[in-house]
Amino acid sequence: MNRPITAPRAAYDRYFDTAWDRAWFSNGGPLVSEFEKRLSAYLEVEHAVVVCNATLGLSLLIQALELTGEVILPSYTFISSANVLKAAGVKPVHCDIRSADMNIDPEACAALITPRTSAVVATHIWGAPCDTSALQAICDDAGIALVYDAAHAFGVRHQGRPIGGFGRAEVFSLHATKVLQAFEGGVVTTDDGALADRLRLLRNFGFSGVDRVEIAGVNAKMSESHAAMGLANLDMIGETLAANRRRHELYADELAGIAGLRFHQPAPGASSNHHYAVAEIDADIFGLDRDGVVDLLFAENVLARRYFYPGGHRSIPHLPESGAPAALPVTEMVCERVLVLPAGAAIALEDVRAICGLIRSIAAHAPELAARLSDTGASRRRSARPDQVAPPGFSKPRTGSKP
Amino acid sequence: MNRPITAPRAAYDRYFDTAWDRAWFSNGGPLVSEFEKRLSAYLEVEHAVVVCNATLGLSLLIQALELTGEVILPSYTFISSANVLKAAGVKPVHCDIRSADMNIDPEACAALITPRTSAVVATHIWGAPCDTSALQAICDDAGIALVYDAAHAFGVRHQGRPIGGFGRAEVFSLHATKVLQAFEGGVVTTDDGALADRLRLLRNFGFSGVDRVEIAGVNAKMSESHAAMGLANLDMIGETLAANRRRHELYADELAGIAGLRFHQPAPGASSNHHYAVAEIDADIFGLDRDGVVDLLFAENVLARRYFYPGGHRSIPHLPESGAPAALPVTEMVCERVLVLPAGAAIALEDVRAICGLIRSIAAHAPELAARLSDTGASRRRSARPDQVAPPGFSKPRTGSKP
Question: Which ipTM value was assigned to this complex?
Fold first, then answer.
């Protein structure tokens, strides 16, 4: 959804050239070491363990914490967490969310804890901090680990300090679309030195010395070229967050007052990285459902999307054998309503204005557009590419657009 | 052991600039697609599925083939295979090797098959092809999968075609130290289209469409910057193989006739990528054991190493609960004898000559050097850094040398 936010090429090359000149391209090179120090300082956390991607970061945490049995996570989150739990032989237990911020519902979470539960993996969705105090109390009471999926939350502060130091550990994504990007990458942060040591062993095959393998580690090393991109982008994170904020505020202004559309804002006084532009469409009031809006925007070459649809609990690999997924009413409502819009520092302010203009225009003609979409059979082809469902009067999208 | 073999910076930039200009850095970008097509053509195999590293490539194969129970692999191989099997809940069963080529012994392998065995993962060690015909017959008889760890074997031909098309699938490493390097990376090759489709799903979270997740996949994507390095190096693979061969032939000439030292050569008429310079030291004849030679070379700033020591079956994560590892006599002999020397196109011919001169000098004074090493207590400190064990007359190594 977000175009890569990318430092100037010269800033990237200044770092990468040093790796090229050394011909040291991986295996804990100087750029990875520098990146870890800088991340640890920025996130105000003792240890930042950089890895090749966030999914593998969570996988290392599962190994390091020896998680078994069941792990509770929100259903409304990226599917990788449930997948990697399952691949490690741990059962993902999908929990419902709160409608206010779409984060895991602590009460619902507490109700799902059983003697088989070994951890909770909670996501700071769209960068909004979870109710960390409630979750910590629940997990402490149960004697289980609490870790956070902070993929969305780089640069967010909470209770006076950055996201990164909550729970037993937090996992950030540094994927190309994230607020801090390193092409592909992730970082696991923790104040627990023994855990950090274990993660470092696990990411490099378990080697504690030239010939000594301590534990069954894999390869989760980040390369120097990726660290170079991460460092160059970290150098300008202040500008990135400011640019994100301007775009987010513009969205909020331009989408204000549209009946049936709620644009998500940080809670009053709360910090945000403003990296995601998320709206909810109430079809009954708006006059058109969210999927209709997605189709119409796509036809105008705007890559808006539903997200985390249909929820982890309804995704094929995680359907129970009975075939009937758990009832998670808030997740299901949110799955039907969420509209994610292009955002982040790499999008032009005039594009935000144009997108908002299109949305206002759709809102103004919603009933008529709903009827036309219905005529073209769009609802029956919803899983097909939206370029096949553009109603008359909407131009064809440019081909070859980026994911 | 091998310095990165690296195309000229301009050749790398020609590819990478296209990714930078597109701001398309991952997620199946055009460079990864081109790299896969080129690899598939070069390796004469239907499908080349590029991944972020070879260990994760094998991990995807374990998931794709739904391996369970036990998997047989040589003990004399890189520890990552046993580790990733264990992490996936599969028991690695370590098999002995043949002394002639250090590859898995087909007879020993056949003897280890039980009703719980789901596959054999055989390594083409040092790029020497396994006895593929014998292994295929054994696995076909048992109705189990045969896959190859081809981490060492890029550019090797066997039975009239490249390594890459044998067994059910082969996994190459594209790590910085390999004959074809992409900073970090791997590629899984197969002629089985259904398997390739499954691997492609598994490397991208299982997504078969925007919202549709088929299977519990993870993130094993290669970035465009890594693909750029792979493409630039693939463009010059012919020169690389020729340069490797010149260095290998020089080693063979210069190390000929040293009593107690056997320099490994491809079998007559066999293809090789000549990427590894491997010798075996018979301490009784040479007059000094292999570890002594490693220490003395290190003291002269030559990073020679023992390798795969002490064998997977004796590594901490894979010791049986009884504490007594299986008896694998050939593996154990090889673990005590193998000396891996700096090799590959990135090392200068004069460095090869100088290294061989040092080895000849060590051989000429072996008994005296053995006595001095014994006086300095080297044998008791064998697992410490060799720079602490240099005997008088040997200079200190440069600090900060690359791994």
Answer: 0.92
